[in-house]
Amino acid sequence: MIKTERLQIVPLEDKYLEDVFQLWGNFGVIKYTYNKLLSSREDCQIRLNDLLSRYKDNLGANKFIILLNNKMIGIIGFPVIDNDDFKCGLFYQIKEEYWGKGYAFEAAQGVLNYIFEKHSNAYVIADAVVLNVASIKILNKLGFKQIFIEENGFKNNGMEIDLVHFEIDRRQTITVS
C-alpha cells in the first residue's frame, strides 16, 4: 500500500469491480483515454481481468485503486514498458465528483515517489491530449517535462486531437506542495 496525506493507494483487485465500472462507464472520465465507454459490468469484468493478467512487474503490483476514507475515487497505474531500464508509463483516472480537489496530483506524486524509491534509474512517460488542461497542469506540477506534441496523436472515441508527450526521471525534482 502507498499512503499519502489523504489517500491510500492499494493494488487493483476484483472486489472493486462495481467502482471501476462506475469510473469506466462515465464518458467524462474516459473521453481522453484509450478506453472505450463501458455499458455493462460484464465488459468491465473482461477489461479488469485483462488488467489483472498483466498486473505485475519486478515491483509487484503496478495498477492501483485510489481510496479516500476507504472509498474508491479513482485508479492509477504505471504499466512497465521496459523492465531492464525501468521505463514505465503513468496514468490516472478520477471520478468526476472528486475532480479539482488535488487527488490526482497527490496520488500521482505518491506513485512516482514509490517508483523512484524502488528504481533509482526509473524513467516515466505520460501523455495528455491538449484539451485536457487539468492533466497537463498536474504533469507540469509533478515536474514532468514536455518532450513533444504529436499532431492528431490521440485517436479514440471519435476524436483526433494533438497529444502532448511528457517525461520525468529520478534526476528531476518532484514538486512537493
UniProtKB/TrEMBL annotation:
SUPFAM superfamilies: Acyl-CoA N-acyltransferases (Nat). Signal peptide: none annotated. It holds the Pfam family Acetyltransf_3. The keyword Transferase applies. GO terms for molecular function: acyltransferase activity, transferring groups other than amino-acyl groups. The keyword Transferase applies. Keywords: Transferase. Residues 7-164 form the N-acetyltransferase domain. This is Ribosomal-protein-alanine N-acetyltransferase. It comes from [Clostridium] fimetarium.
